[in-house]
Amino acid sequence: MKHQGMLLILLLALLGVTCSPPPGVETPPPSEIERQMDLADSFAQGNDFRRAVHLYSIIADNAPETIWGATATHRTALLLSSPRNPSRNDSLALLWFRSTIARTRSADERLQAEVSIALLDRLQLRVRDARRQRAIVDSLQTALRRQSGTILSQTRRLQDMEREVVTAQTELKRLKEVDVTLSRSRQIR
């Protein structure tokens, strides 16, 4: 059930839709939200990113219209894109940054989210370029291996042919010697 709720939240974030808490779920009182924010902040500072992201996302979903919801949305995006986070996910971070732009009233947070989106988009382009270049390098290496194999077999064939020529020359010299010997023996008679 929790996973379906998270998927719905992610889908709404993808579409840039701000949402109110589900029916029957009341927005927690400000003191409770502040306590949850403090707890999420402590998780983030302690490098427990999974719990911090989880708690921030709960705050963002339960109080989307509040300043805490907007801040929690932005912090979720930041943690999901943090290089220190072992479960970093740039695609999810983009969704949360887009949601931040839709939810926040702070010009600074909006600007930070826009810059982060631009940087993540550039990063994704660089990753695609790197993959494409890696594929090109792999195909060139494959072609090089094939050509190396062809050159190696042709070199071996040339070496075999050179040996055959040397053997034929040696046989030809022997035949000449035999012919000269026969010619001398005929002249002597």
Question: Please, could you describe this protein's structure?
Answer:
- Helix 2 packs antiparallel against helix 3 and helix 4 packs antiparallel against helix 5.
- With 189 residues, the protein is an all-alpha fold.
- It has 6 helices and no strands.
- The chain has a domain of 129 residues: Alpha Horseshoe (Serine Threonine Protein Phosphatase 5, Tetratricopeptide repeat), CATH 1.25.40.
- The longest helix has 82 residues.
- About 6% of the residues have low confidence.
- The N and C termini lie far apart (117 Å).
Care to give the gist of this entry?
The chain is an all-alpha fold.
Task: List the main descriptive attributes of the protein structure presented here.
189 residues; mainly alpha; Serine Threonine Protein Phosphatase 5, Tetratricopeptide repeat; 6 helices
Shape: rod-shaped
- Compressed to H and E, one letter per element, the order equals HHHHHH
Strand-residue fraction?
under 5%
Low-confidence stretches: 10-20
* C-alpha Rg (nearest Å): 38 Å
- CA-to-CA gap between the ends? 117 Å
Please outline the major beta sheet.
none
SSE inventory with pairings:
Elements: H1 2-14, H2 30-45, H3 49-62, H4 67-81, H5 90-103, H6 107-188
Helix pairs in contact: 2-3, 3-4, 4-5, 5-6
